[in-house]
Amino acid sequence: MKNSSILASIPLFKALDSNQLANIASATHEITVNKGRILFNKGDPSDGFYIVVSGRIKLSFVSRDGKEFIAEIFGPNQSFGEAVMFLGKSYPVCAQALMDSKILHVPKSIVFEGVDNNAGFARRVIAGLCARLVDRIQTLEYLTVYSSIQKVIGYLLREIELAESEKSKDVNHNEADVLLAVNKATLAAQLNLTPETLSRVLHKLVDEGLIRVEGKTIHICHVQKMRDFNG
Length: 231
Prior knowledge:
Blueprint: H1 2-8, H2 18-25, E1 29-33, E2 38-40, E3 48-54, E4 57-62, E5 68-74, E6 79-80, H3 82-87, E7 94-97, E8 101-107, H4 108-117, H5 119-145, H6 148-164, E9 176-179, H7 184-190, H8 195-207, E10 211-214, E11 217-220, H9 223-228
Antiparallel strand pairs: 1-8, 2-7, 3-6, 3-8, 4-5, 4-7, 9-11, 10-11
C-alpha cells in the first residue's frame, strides 16, 4: 500500500486505478543509497526508472577536462530515468546520493506491460515525457535569461515547495528552512553562477532581511516577501 501511494504521487501514474497501481507496486523494490554512494554510472544499462522516496539524488557528468556538470537534482516524489528506459540506451549520466536516500526502482518490464495493455497509461507516459521536455526547456531559459538573484530565489522557493509537498502545507506566508543538499560551490555551478556571485547574492538577501544563513541551512524569514522581491 505504501509503494502504491508513492507511485500515485508522480505524474506518470496519477491516472491509474488502485488495482493497476497495486500491480506495478508489487514489482517495485526499495533501495537505500547512503550519502556519496553511486546508484548507477554513465554507460550502465537501464532496466527501469527510479522514484525518490526521501533524500536527494544528483545526476551529473564529467567533461573531458574533469569538470563536473550537474544535470539535475531530484527529491521526494520526483522520478528520473524514464526516457533512457524507453530509448533502450545506457545512462548518459551518473546518479549519486547527496544524502542518505530511499528510492523505488520500477522495472522496465512492468512499465512496458502497462503501455502494451492500457492505452490510457500509454498516453500518460507520453504526456509525462513531454512535460519533462518542457521542464528542461524552462530550466534552460531560467539558467540563461534570469538574473543571479532570480536564480537563487527560484532555487530556494523550489526547494521549499519540494520539502513541503510531503506535508501538504501552504507556505505562501510562512517562514521556512532550506537545508542545502550540496555545498555552495556545487550549488553555484548548478545555477550557472560563480561561487563569488552566489555569495554576493546570499549576502544581499541577508541584508534585505529575507534570509538568514546558518551553515548549510538557509532560513527564509518570509516566503511571500521573497516571492515578491524583484532585486
